[in-house]
Amino acid sequence: MTTVFNDPTQFAQDMLAGFCRLHADTVEPVTGGAIRATETPEGKVAVVIGGGSGHYPAFVGWVGPGMADGAVVGNVFSSPSTQQVHAVATAAERGGGVFLSYGNYAGDVLNFDLAQERLITDGIPTKTVVVSDDITSASTEERHKRRGTAGDLVVFKIAGAAAEAGYDLDGVVEVAERANDATFSFAVAFAGCTLPGDSEPLFTVPAGRMGVGMGVHGEPGIGEQDVLPASELATMLVDKLLTERPEGATRAAVLVNGLGGTKYEEMFVLWNSVAPLLDEAGVEMVAPEVGELITSLDMTGVSLTLFWLDPELEELWLAPAQTPGFRRGAAVATTRRTRTATDAAADTSFPPASEASQASAQRLVEIGTRLAAVLHEHEEEFGKLDAIAGDGDHGRGMTNGADAALNALTAAVNAGAGVASALAAAGDAWGDRAGGTSGALWGAGLRAAAGALSDEEAPSGAAVRAAVRAALDQLLSYGKAERGDKTMLDALIPFTEALEQDDRDLSAAWSAAADIATEHAQATADLTPRIGRARPLAERSIGHPDPGAVSLALVMRTAAP
């Protein structure tokens, strides 16, 4: 259980502050994460990595010479926001472009992709390689759907070494893609992990059993079986990974990774069985690593990774690196940067607004107050529902987003903002604070809805309907989901259609549409997820409604005018 914390909702921020205080000679805090505190050459490609907290030494522990120039730090098991990615990348870039890399999870993909678009718009060349090494999360034919696990370390190390050696942006991308294609991981777990502030783990494994095929966000495995002796566990892991051995490959980096609650002594016992099996299979092991490489809070479990090498990849794998969480080779000479990264002051000014629009903005504060309260009441319920086939962070993500949106609304109203500007500020705050897929979609949806409103007049019923439609269209564009995929859209689409087709006054039409959304949200229990983290665990999800759809329906009922 995670027991050392203050406010559990501030765990990631407190962790980052303590880490940067301890490693002030290496890293420097910036909005959204941390960057190197040491000088890097002008024109160097900036390697920016990131993801949710709870995985140390990933991701912030890998900032330093030979690896990353910056790391974006999201909430526990939740993707960082678009704003965070953009802020860290902007602080880290040195004129050679930005290379982004992260594990293949829907929230990370959405937020990093949006940040990449913003960086390119800013005139900063930016490219991405998504890590997809977990062989249990998709077939070989659908390799692009595999999630990123301990292979993150491999891809980040190769990209960081290439950038340090002076490769240009295209060159860094090429070797990182090659490394990703040559990396394969398989994990098991003996006990689940517990989020800060929670009393129960995200999942449990019966005594004497182990979950097979675990993700690093606490996702339960794809199956269970009896716990095996170390020698038999090693055989299972090695045999499974060797089925995807590239033709003619002989040399490999090997990683035995502890997921957080497994002692180093246990990993050494496992390695004592893994190494001979690889020797027998004709694998020449190069600079193997055994230890906590990418964890999952206090999850008890292990993973095995094989990274098949060619001469160039081997040279980059062996190249020096000097970070708080990973060191390789001789010490790298560094000079502390003379400048201090500073964050631009937030612009709190808003366009002029009519009294009618300001009054509507004030009503948004009242709605936001109700929403924050009701979401806190249901936080644990949504977390448990999400943990059935996901990582259990949905409840906390919704409360974090609603709290931030309420604070932004209040500040905007106090500054004289109209309804459009206030709602836009709420959307930005929700997306930034909540993180993850849900946070990004709520932020983008609220922003789009604001674009259909005006600071010059109070919104009419038609304008509100147009705002809801704008939000839906934005989510259909960004989220890449469809009706029937078992997502929040299965509630939002029928809500929008019902609201548009009901010509009664807005209050009556909204309440009726919210009831319809609730019915459709509950009906998602019969659906099978086709995208997102729940997809690999589709069978577990059947019989349970989608948490995103259920929470959206609750929001719509609570927000009824």
Secondary structure blueprint with pairings:
Layout: H1 11-22, E1 27-30, E2 33-36, E3 46-53, E4 70-76, H2 82-92, E5 98-103, H3 106-121, E6 126-131, H4 151-164, H5 169-181, E7 183-191, E8 209-212, E9 223-226, H6 230-242, E10 251-258, H7 264-280, E11 284-285, E12 289-291, E13 300-308, H8 311-318, E14 321-322, E15 327-328, H9 355-377, H10 379-387, H11 394-414, H12 419-434, H13 436-451, H14 461-479, H15 489-501, H16 506-523, H17 538-541, H18 547-558
Parallel strand pairs: 3-4, 3-5, 5-6, 10-11, 10-12
Antiparallel strand pairs: 1-2, 2-4, 7-8, 7-13, 8-9, 10-13, 14-15
Helix pairs in contact: 2-3, 3-13, 4-5, 6-7, 9-11, 9-12, 9-18, 10-11, 10-18, 11-12, 11-13, 12-13, 13-14, 14-15, 15-16, 15-18, 16-18
Would you summarize the structure shown here?
The chain is an alpha/beta fold and 561 residues long. 45% of the residues lie in helices and 14% in strands. The protein contains 18 helices and 15 strands.
Strand content: 5-15%
Broad shape: globular
**Largest β-sheet summary:** 7 strands, mixed
Low-confidence stretches: 340-346
Integer average pLDDT: 92
CATH topology of the largest domain, by name, is Rossmann fold
- Radius of gyration equals 24 Å
The CATH architecture designation of the largest domain is 3-Layer(aba) Sandwich
Count structural domains. 2
- CATH homologous superfamily annotation of the largest domain: Dihydroxyacetone kinase, domain 1
Number of helices: 18
Termini Cα gap:
42 Å
Helix content: 40-55%
Count the strands?
15
Q: What top-tier CATH class of the largest domain fits best?
A: Alpha Beta
Which structural class fits the helix and strand makeup? alpha/beta
Oligomer classification:
single chain
